[in-house]
Amino acid sequence: MQILDAAATRAPLGFERLVPALQDAFAGNITVPARHVHQVQVGQDVGTVLIMPAWSEAGFMGIKTVNIWPGNSARGLPGLHSSYLLYDAGTGVPLAMMDGDEITSRRTAAAAALGASFLARDDARRLLVLGTGRVARMLPAAMRHVRPGIDEVMVWNHRFEGAQGLAAAWRAEGLNATAVTNLEPAVRHADIVSCATLSTTPLVQGEWLAAGSHLDLIGSFTPQMREAAPDCFGPGARTFVDTEEALKKSGDLLDAMAAGHLREDAVQATLFQLCKGERSGRTGADERTVFKAVGNALEDLAAATLVWQAQGKSVST
Description:
Layout: E1 2-3, H1 6-10, H2 15-27, E2 30-31, E3 36-42, E4 45-56, E5 60-68, E6 80-88, E7 94-99, H3 100-119, E8 126-130, H4 134-146, E9 152-156, H5 160-172, E10 177-179, H6 183-189, E11 192-195, E12 214-217, E13 237-241, H7 246-249, H8 251-258, E14 269-270, H9 271-275, E15 288-292, H10 297-310
Parallel strand pairs: 1-7, 8-9, 8-11, 9-10, 11-12, 12-15, 13-14, 13-15
Antiparallel strand pairs: 2-4, 3-4, 4-5, 5-6, 6-7
């Protein structure tokens, strides 16, 4: 079994390759059983373990293990750690151990960009990112892949110094980036609002969202987590999800349905339906769109397959 470190895992996962690979995966034939979710408590420390399997007709099988410990921020540690095992689906033989953090962060940002390719306005210019973690750091590059007109990036974080540091890093990469302290005017100004946090309380209010804006919610993935208030899904909004599982796992959607702002049958489409051409995305410049993603193991498998193939090997190697 080959062991691929972060650099080797990252190298083949540029968004110019990963976004199309995800689109092919959502339109293709990949089996994804329900993920396993376990709560872990050791003393005062509480975390969540996700176990996410998938296999494809191309002959690959993968299992990702994700550890989410929100309390790590107080220790100066990332809140998410993961590992990925890729197998030959025909024999069960292990092929590679990959850096799961690279796969998770890059495929999450790529999925957000894939959603935006259907849902954000073609002329979107102003991007607001909430959060400063691994996924948040990649969002400008991912979004600019599908909306190259983006020429202004704002970042907000509950610790302003984190937003300042990330804005400075983006400026060093040539982006017109600023850190913001007041969230409301930044949301009102943005064409795309992308939330990549582990928040358990709503951050974005529906009344702040401008006509024609796109709200991208990719941070929360449990019923206890939420990034958007229920009225973000209210009248005037068209809501899309990555998978039907989001309706059962997302605190944002569960709150919106409980408050009467969203009906399950009012969800416009899943990412599967968008990628297969079965449903339409944005239909007008002034409509407001919302994309809620909780992640799917097919995204990880698509990314891991790219990494393995970049080694110049086939499934039987």
